[in-house]
Amino acid sequence: MSRSIVRQSKFRHVFGQAVKAEQAYDDIRVSKVTWDSSFCAINPKFLAVIVESSGGGAFLVLPLSKTGRVDKNYPLVIGHSGPVLDIDWCPHDDNILASCSEDCTAMVWQIPDHSLTRPLSDPVVVLEGHSKRVGIVSWHPTARNILLTAGSDNLIIIWNVGTGEPLISMDDHPDLIYSVSWNRNGSLFCTTCKDRRLRVCDPRKREVVAERLAPHEGIRPMRAIFIRDGNIFTTGFTRMSQRELGLWDPTNFEEPIALLELDTSNGVLLPYYDADANMVYLCGKGDSSVRYFEITEEVPYVHYLNTFSSKEPQRGMGFMPKRGVDVTKCEIARLYKLLDKKCEPITMTVPRKSDLFQDDLYPDTAGPDPAMEPEEWLDGRDEDPILISMRGGYVPPKSRELKVAKKNVLDSRPTTRRSMSTLDTNSLPPQLLERLLEEIQNLKATVLSQEKRICDLENKLSQYTNGTA
Q1: 448/440 Cα distance (integer angstroms)
Q2: What are phi and psi of 327, to 5 degrees?
Q3: Rounded to whole angstroms, how far apart are CA atoms 214 and 113?
Q4: What is the spatial distance between Cα 194 and Cα 222, in angstroms, rounded to a whole number?
Q5: Is residue 47 within a helix (H) or strand (E), and if so which, with residue range?
């Protein structure tokens, strides 16, 4: 008699649970723009949501503690002149947020630690280099101030936000770019495109190092993300419009490591990856469920774990970095589900009886410190993220100001003239010195007379106002 063997995994019993109504965020007018973006970005300090706005693009930024009903007059971030399409928090500073829009620009914002008291309209830096709308922004995982943008002009530009200058531009894509994902150390990124190709790009060599035609045979949009071991996880559609997921080795694109059909639905599956647990959460736009899978080295490599279902379909989804989860409750992930007028957190928990810190659930995770400077990365250096321990939980640091130092072409030229303040007065001709002193005396006299006239006029005005004149 054969006995079935159950696969051993500490994540086999992970369950999802929506928070109580008072811990959600109500009365948020989520954007209705037709773009396959998540519309939501989360970090351990803030929740950011792209919202409906008249007269340009806007998004809402709330401290995580500000749950409940959001005042309809709550200040927004309103710098873009067209609808905002994508937002992304900087992994190295919880107060820095990048956004991109149909107005062909990307902007970087400094969000204050406290709640906004008035609309924020002045970005730290505006990145202008695309000729059509910009649909994707993505921060480099380990290098400070490196930001990638992708636009409908089929161009990918990598910027140094610290100077506001483009470092690298790549035009290898002949059609609309659907998604971009960096690998763990930021040496490569993978893209999916409307031409049905999955590409792996080396930005510093400015070349495509590997590509695969039609990893999914359907013509609907695909998504791809790098996972921890360097493989690529994809979602797409079959020729019969069934949703499908795949796992690929970029060094050998001939055959997939795994290919799994899911269901028949129109919504694009957005993958969110937890590198510490090696788990992927799949959230389809218009779905009312979240599926989650574990990736291992055992056949069939991608293991279905469970599905979290709710009543209302989601408009978008945000994924909390591991730094922001509650280790005291064995929470391994937290998603923020966008509904029509609400944002609802969903906690993913491993059931454990002990209240002690669970070392096996929380290996050291990527911290907020960058591993290298922009110049080091551009020169060819690669570094994995700097890890921190989750024991005792994570406390976000205070805001650090992002300083943008624009390079001035005049700085490199030698200066031949000196200002008057640096000249030695003894070197001036006596006649010129006397004339300058006389002009200074005349200016002082003019200032004094104008001050006296202003005082007289103020006195007369106060007499008329008081009725004594």
Answers
A1: 13
A2: -75, -20
A3: 45
A4: 8
A5: strand 46-51
CB-count exposure of residue 458 (10 Å: 0-12, 13-18, 19+): exposed
Give the CA distances from residue 274 to residues 97, 227, 321, 459, in Å, rounded to whole numbers and listed in that order. 21, 9, 8, 71
Please state the φ and ψ torsions of residue 411, each to the nearest 5 degrees.
Answer: -65, -25
Q: What residues pair up with 319 in beta bridges, in sequence order? A: 335
Is residue 466 packed enough to be buried (19+ CB in 10 Å), middle (13-18) or exposed (0-12)? exposed
The maximal CA–CA distance of the chain, rounded, in angstroms, is 117
pLDDT in single tens digits along all 469 residues of the chain: 345 567 888 999 999 999 999 999 999 999 999 888 899 999 999 999 999 988 789 999 999 999 999 999 999 999 999 999 999 999 999 999 999 999 999 999 999 988 888 999 999 999 999 999 999 999 999 999 999 999 999 999 999 999 999 999 999 999 999 999 999 999 999 999 999 999 999 999 999 999 999 999 999 999 999 999 999 999 999 999 999 999 999 999 999 999 999 998 888 999 999 999 999 999 998 899 999 999 999 989 999 999 999 999 999 999 999 999 999 999 999 999 999 899 999 999 999 988 889 999 999 999 999 999 999 999 999 999 999 999 988 887 777 667 777 654 334 333 333 334 334 445 567 777 777 888 888 888 888 888 888 888 877 877 776 666 5
Strand partners, 58: 51
Q: What is the DSSP letter of 155?
A: -
